[in-house]
């Protein structure tokens, strides 16, 4: 079952800034590729939450929270 997640407004603005910065410095194709890659990783983490955890001195640290 696919898990759902939401992206906060501030994070959406950050994603838009990444896209605009990449567009101005590289190309439309690269800007689309970067944002698509970020969204694909969010989907991966939502579907496989254990991928986003890593051990740190016998503690597990969450790098993203899926709901």
From TrEMBL:
Task: Tell me the protein's name.
Answer: Type II toxin-antitoxin system RelE/ParE family toxin
Task: Specify the superkingdom.
Answer: Bacteria
Q: Which InterPro entries match?
A: RelE/ParE_toxin, RelE/ParE_toxin_dom_sf
Q: Which Pfam families match?
A: ParE_toxin
Query: What UniProt keywords are attached to this protein's entry?
Result: Toxin-antitoxin system
The organism encoding this protein is Pseudohalioglobus lutimaris
């Amino acid at each position: 079952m696919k898990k759902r997640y939401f992206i906060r407004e501030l994070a959406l603005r950050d994603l838009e800034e990444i896209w605009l910065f990449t567009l101005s410095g590289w190309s439309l194709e690269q800007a689309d590729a970067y944002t698509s890659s970020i969204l694909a990783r969010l989907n991966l983490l939502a579907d496989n939450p254990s991928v986003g955890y890593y051990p740190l001195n016998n503690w597990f640290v969450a790098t993203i929270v899926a709901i």
